[in-house]
Amino acid sequence: MAEAQPKNDAGTSIATQPPMVEVTGLTYTFQDYSTGISDITLDLPAGSRTLLIGANGAGKTTLLRLLAGKRLAPKNTIRIGGHDPFSHGLEGVTYLGLEWVLNPVVRRDIGVDELLASVGGNAFPERRDELVSVLDIDTSWRMHAVSDGERRRVQLAMGLLRPWRVLLLDEITVDLDVWTRAQFLGWLRREVERHPGRDEGLPPPTIVYATHILDHLAGWPTHLVHMHLGSVREWGPASRFLEDPEYYNQRVRADPALLAASGAGRVLAAQSSVRGHTGSDSPALSLLGASGNSRLGDLVLAWLRDDLGERGPRSQNRRGPEGLTYLVGGIGGYGQETWSKELEKKD
């Protein structure tokens, strides 16, 4: 089947855009010599919206923090917009992760207006007001007296207030209610499609988003990256995985365990009975999403099912837990490696 290429708002294939995020042979080892991620190679075009998929501990957070410059990667393994971010800086790259809400500073008696002003809210008043509206923020909130979900909204507004070219999101919507999350995902999609900076010749914004919550994401990603045990198993345009019947039906087979996990078995059995179909030719086999899961959701369930079967019990796994990415410098991490001026000039 001819592969449908993701399109931007102008109808141009995203595949024609040059890579915005390039990773080549990236391996990262923690200070205790346990492996964080190993031999990752991928490239994501400008204007893409990529979902980073994988079980807990698959390496998603470690990869995002390396892309964001929170950890120093081996030289020439990561390029953002064609440049090594560690020798050229990370202007226009925004990383938002879960750890922010634990910062004692944002749990003090301080107002939302003050926080937004501290990151340039007055310099971008229209963007500030748009984010306050989309995220349904009350600017009279005091940060010591809000819920974690409300605090998360403020983090998102602060992090996205200044224009960005590459946005790296790590489980950032986990605290949001269903409505706010849907509005926020819609805003992200519009932000990419309206292509701020087009008149200046800048590439469209690019998003890499790690999440386990797939609600409202059907049709949202242009690309998928499937991670397992610190490596990338497969990656590419979402259409390659979701619109190719041969691939999809092979991976999302009518596995009783998969159906039971989603609760789809009872729904599919009822539909099949009502329609008078039984056996392998039942149309129910093509309706694995009838429980409420999208095709994307069913594919992710199948990926994680297969990953678990291959991996076995976690006690047999000698990889370092991903929490280490926050706690230790790591080999090749900050404090362990510096570039000389000569190396910077050669890059």
From TrEMBL:
* Superkingdom of origin organism: Eukaryota
UniProt keyword annotation of Metal-binding present: no
Lineage, top ranks? Eukaryota, Fungi, Dikarya, Ascomycota, Pezizomycotina
Q: Per the record, what is one GO cellular component?
A: CCR4-NOT complex
InterPro entries recorded: AAA+_ATPase, ABC_transporter-like_ATP-bd, P-loop_NTPase
What name does UniProt use for this protein?
Ccr4-not complex subunit caf16
* Gene Ontology biological-process entries: regulation of transcription by RNA polymerase II
Report the PROSITE patterns cross-referenced here. Answer: ABC_TRANSPORTER_2
In what residue span(s) does the ABC transporter domain sit?
A: 21-254
Offer an example of a GO molecular function term for this protein: ATP binding
Q: Name one Pfam family in it.
A: ABC_tran
* Alphabetic keyword roster: ATP-binding, Nucleotide-binding
